[in-house]
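lol ok so funny story. i was supposed to be doing the assay writeup but got distracted and ended up predicting the structure for this chain instead. priorities right. anyway since i did it might as well share w the group, maybe its usefull for someone
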Amino acid sequence: HSAPKEITVSKGQEEKPDSLVKYFSVVWCKASKKKHKKWEGDAVLIVKGKSFTLKDLEGKDIGRGTGYKLKELEKIEEGQTMMIGGKEIEVMGIISPDDFNSGRCFQFGGGCSAVLSSSQAAKKCFSNPFKSVCKLSSKENKQNSFQNCKPRHDPYAPDSLVMLRPDKNHQWLFNKTCFPVVDVVIDPHLVYYLRPHQKEGVIFLYECVMGMRVNGRCGAILADEMGLGKTLQCISLIWTLQCQGPYGGKPIIKKTLIVTPGSLVNNWRKEFQKWLGIERIKIFTVDQDHKVEEFTKSPFYSVLIISYEMLLRSLDQIKTVKFDLLICDEGHRLKNSAIKTTTALISLSCEKRIILTGTPVQNDLQEFFTLIDFVNPGILGSLSAYRKIYEEPIIISRQPSASEEERKLGEQRAAELTCLTGLFILRRTQEVINKYLPPKIENVVFCRPGALQIELYRQLLNSQAVRFCLQGLLENTSHLICIGALKKLCNHPCLLFGSIKEKESNSTWDESEERNLYEGLMNVFPGDYNPIMFTEEESGKLQVLSKLLAVIRELRPAEKVVLVSNYTRTLDILQEVCKRHGYTYTRLDGQTPISQRQKIVDGFNSKYSSDFIFLLSSKAGGVGLNLIGGSHLILYDIDWNPATDIQAMSRVWRDGQKHPVHIYRLLTTGTIEEKIYQRQISKQGLSGAVVDLAKTSDHIQFSVEELKNLFTLHESSHCVTHDLLDCECTGENHTG
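and the output, tada:
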């Protein structure tokens, strides 16, 4: 045996003994006196000063100790055995600080660099030089096989889009029959319509599902912002894989399952018909009249489009079909691995999986893991390992109290996680198509509250419920009730009046928190107040909206308006305004049957439509709706989550829009709406970044100081936001 290799400390680590940090790969077992050890597993030994920690390959501490002399720890040899916390270890080698800080030393065969598909030499398929590559048995078979060994489309034609050829490693794994490698070329008919970013997206998806980007993995997440044409990219991929393949031209897939929100099932069907017609590929959509059984019994259909809800009802039938490709639209809803939908989809034996989402998936590390593990199971190890190796160090590093060492470790772990997952996650923002779109003008309109609104607002802020909130005497959810009342009041006093009447008729009124909030408010309303006969003057925003609609109607008679609110009852008020002024309108909210939604959207977008206004619930219209028929969008109220508002705004400014787009955000000045707006832009960093859709107002926590700021009415200011900007203008050019 050769002498054991001595592992010494690098020069950069020789400054202070207590600051020395060294890392070693080891094997371990329980301490025993047996001569021949039975090692139980691999581990990582961390030596810092006189102390040491033993972590298993999932990042869990399995041993700690101290007591060795510094001189002993400074010279640790390969093959050396040590005792740590009742465990015996044998040192196998040194781990570089970079490999430890990135997390590469722990699992998945070495981290980011190891999962990359390599073009390294692999065993070559044996091919008898005296036989044809294609097995031939007759003249007809000879002709067919020869044709199959040629690309479906000309790879040398101008503007052709040719996929990456598989490397030798890929051929060794997936071309066992030694078919000749042929070019996979996207249908020129589709290429003609694909924008540059969409071509990149098709290439990305193809390489992912073919296992060319990550060894042994066939999943992808396409997280492009809304309006970038994710549907067309997927249709191009499906049509390509349905007809072609790199090995002898043999198609890669036969059947595809597309799972989507119910409101988008028909949209997918229409997109297939738009780009491929009705003869090229047979599509089956599941609805009340068309059951999954029809698809399973017919050999003609290649693509099944189904809603998440119908998937759960028909899971047993779907499992009888072998699907080669699974696409989950709006897939961020799978972020919880415990919900039935995620469990059902995981149970399908389909290796090629794609998630489509317009929402950034990296903001919540727990949800991020679930999505990653769905498309590429096991690539981040177990959940417990992921938490130890990535989530915990990253979260700790982002705390204000984090040490420099913790901050650097978290940054390196985050970088490694991004590197690893970036191989199969692609996200582009709307900036990539802005040059193709007409101009967009965004306006934030600050509206002075009406006299009745101001008086009611004062009364609410002086209520016992608000005082208790500021003293921390009520439950955690009490402040949400107060905030909800203030937001209703900002929309219109009649909404608050209706809520009070509704609560008073409830048998639990005397014991409810709302009583402490609403007590005395009815005395502020006029004695003969009738919410059905509301006036525009009672609400600053409604007054501004009425004038704005009149101006648009007069100056842009050929253009249409999308009017958005978070609340159904507010939409009722806006609908009544339309009736009073004779504006033609259509409406889509949570009560609109899913089967009717696409028809309503198509009608509004048609150039023959006579509707001037589209009344839209932001919750119902937040997913996938294309409202390019409107070029003016008015957000009547504001949401805590800027993603909700940004989603709504993206309905009109997207591919296919012909007119310059005008966005109006209405805010009641001096009130909670301005505070929400300020919180939004601080969260976004004024960059337009979207926060996670999961962060609704129900999850928001406030300090007492923040609540004091929220529960303040700035009556003397024309615009608090303007005041905060320290602008030198007087701010007198205001309306309303």
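The longest strand covers residues 21-30. Residues 451-524 form one domain.
back to the writeup now i swear
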